[in-house]
Amino acid sequence: MKTPRDLLFEQHQDAKSKLDAISSEVVARSREEQHDAIPKLRISGLSNFALLLWRELILPSRRVWAGLAAAWVLILAVNFALRDPALAGKAKVSAPVMMSFQEQQKLLNELLVDRSLPDDVDRPKSFLPRPRSERIVVVMT
Amino acid sequence: MLEVAAPEPLPVPQARAGDPAAWETLFRRYQMPLYVYVFELTHDEQASLDLVQESFIAAVKHVGSLREDGKFGSWLFGIAHQKCLQRWRKRGGWEILFDEIPESPGETGDGPDELLIRRERETEFMNLLNQLPLPHRSVLLLHFVEDFSIEEIARITETQPGTVKSRLHYAKKSLRQILEAKNENAA
């Protein structure tokens, strides 16, 4: 006498070797996947993080982000359009030109300082004081 | 007094942690019951082997969704049952076979070993099993093969426990009736 379970199992004994092969195959496959997954995780850690950010932060509210990006582009465009062209030109002057310009400015400043002073101020006197006896009176006739 | 050794606990936590040896143990434990169940529903050897393999792969992939380690067996059978349903749905036959059976209330106090089959009746038993409507056969197989409780069978087949109870009762009653009728005819 057999139980239904015993009978059912007995009926399918032929499939045992095939089932063993299937079990081993699935285990081997999962083992391979595990081995593959670990280095991949290490290498692509950064890209995974970026992907995660994209998926969790950007993608759910992509319209909001697109709107913000458009607003920033508009702000930058307006900012460039309203810029002073003279200032923009100055910004393009190269360093050597700037140096010579500064030197010229310096020379000009020195010259201007000399011109601006009155003739008798701070000018060294050309004669030395002498005793009265040595004074020569020149009579103009 | 005879002491019965407690069954060894299944290495489900180790399998969950990705231990291949644990998976090997689990697969060896369930490969035959699962195959018997699937084969007796489909009667197609290659399809049954494919379904067992697909169920194992799905188990490895989705073990994170298993809530209780002690329910691994019924969870795995649930996966296999769903795979069978998908295959049948593709062919368009499962719904009719599974839904048109009237349910009858009844008690199912008997264990799976209550029904013992004599050697000369073995072939008859298998033929009778195959004559049962598919929903009843499914419930009866789960009861015979793994001695699952009513609640576990309900979870596997995604039906109400009351429905499982009545299907099991109906299936057993049908088997007995057919066997008795055969015996009477033989006498």
Structure description:
The complex is a heterodimer of chains A (141) and B (187). Chain A has helices at residues 4-11, 16-43, 45-58, 62-81, 85-90, 95-116. In chain A, helix 2 packs across helix 3 (45-58). With 141 residues, chain A is mainly α. The mean pLDDT of chain A is 77. The relative contact order of chain A is 0.03. Chain B has 187 residues and is an all-alpha fold. Chain B folds into two domains: 10-100, RNA polymerase sigma factor, region 2, helix turn helix motif (Rna Polymerase Sigma Factor, Chain: A); 110-187, Arc Repressor Mutant, subunit A, CATH 1.10.10.10. In chain B, 69% of the residues lie in helices and 0% in strands. Chain B contains nine helices and no strands. In chain B, helix 2 packs antiparallel against helix 3, helix 2 (20-42) packs across helix 4 and helix 3 (45-62) crosses helix 4. The interface between A and B is medium-sized, with 26 and 35 residues.
Short account of what is shown:
The complex is a heterodimer of chains A (141) and B (187). Chain A is mostly helical and 141 residues long.
Amount of helix of chain B: 55-70%
Span between termini of chain B? 42 Å
Q: How many helices of chain B does DSSP assign?
A: 9
Task: Predict the CATH topology of the largest domain in chain B.
Answer: Rna Polymerase Sigma Factor, Chain: A
CATH class of the largest domain in chain B: Mainly Alpha
The total strand number of chain B stands at 0
Helix-strand sequence of chain B: HHHHHHHHH
Distance between the termini of chain A: 172 Å
Instruction: Give a short account of the largest sheet of chain A.
Output: none
Radius of gyration of chain B: 18 Å
Q: Give the domain tally of chain B.
A: 2
